[in-house]
Target: B9 domain-containing protein 1
Amino acid sequence: MSASESTTGGVFLVSVIGQIEKAHFPSYDNMYCKYTFVYGPDWEIVTGIEEGISQIAQKSQDERQQVVWNFPLDISFKSTNPHGWPQLIISVYGLDTFGNDVVRGYGVCHLPVVNGQSSEEMIMFVPESSSTLQKLTSWLTGKRPEYVDARLLARGDGREVTRVRSQGCVWINLMLCSKTFISMALKTIITVKYQFLSMMVCEIKSLKQYLVKKKSQS
Model:
């Protein structure tokens, strides 16, 4: 798609490259992460992978005790509407003493809206059991509470009934490059201002006619 076609059709492009660098979970080791992008109905993936899974990594033996993945991200979107701006969801898993996969943390953030490089420390959280009985059951069976679909974190519907607690953090590094987004935004602002001024002119004309009519009647 050429630049002229993008501008004429009201389509803008957003490309993101980066990596999920590392994580810090002091009490856990041997972890891997999953990522997925969630976006609105007006968005479409042009190139890249929507979701992926990293390798298992051990935490460093120094005082930092960080798990390093350096897992690459590379994806491009196109859209006609900024609504539904893409979000990145990261889920971190590890192995418990029985060798089962257990969720260690969830995190979600919007992709940057400004061109350039940005780094973010994503605070992770895990859902908690809603009752003492469920806590006891999860402790006996080794199955911790987790989301059936992590995309729920981006939508927000139903999240008010879940209990969570903070646990660990993940560092990500992203570089965003957009095309025709700024020009499209400026065009939208100019259009809105023109419509507002036109409406104000109509209101002033109506008020002037009303005052003239009232003066003639008096």
Q: What stands out?
A: The longest strand covers residues 163-179. The domain at 12-179 is CATH 2.60.40.150 (Immunoglobulin-like).
